[in-house]
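Exercise 3.2. Students should predict the tertiary structure of the chain below and write it as structure tokens, then compare their answer with the key that follows.

Predict this chain's 3D structure.
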Amino acid sequence: MENIKIGDIITFYNKNNGFIEDKTNIICHRVIGVKKISGKVILIEKGDNYLECTEVNENNFIGKVKTVCKDNKAIDLSNKKWIILNTLFAIISRLAFFYNIKIMKKNNFKHKKGLQYRFESLLLRLFL
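Answer key:
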């Protein structure tokens, strides 16, 4: 977990739904923050279309996503272009979280295809 950085896409067991014991609920989300507490790395993850973010620790961390397959094409996420884009998406996602939760005081965690989603979709269409 020490080599994970902001913008990386990770897989983890969803501990919030109580399924971590049987390890059946696997999620892929983007890292929007990394912090160390008592020498242990804690990742802050957020799905691109969620307002909520959660912490991932070594107990529910699975690994880093290195390749994504879309439309029969493999996308290497270690490519410089994708590192820049994913970091940009993480920054946008963190700003969206801060705006919605901290400023607007929204506690409604439903999927919403708002400005952030439209902006990221536009960037992806340009680069795919």
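Discussion points: Residues 9-127 form one domain. Strands lie at 9-13, 26-37, 40-46, 53-56, 61-64, 67-70, 73-76.
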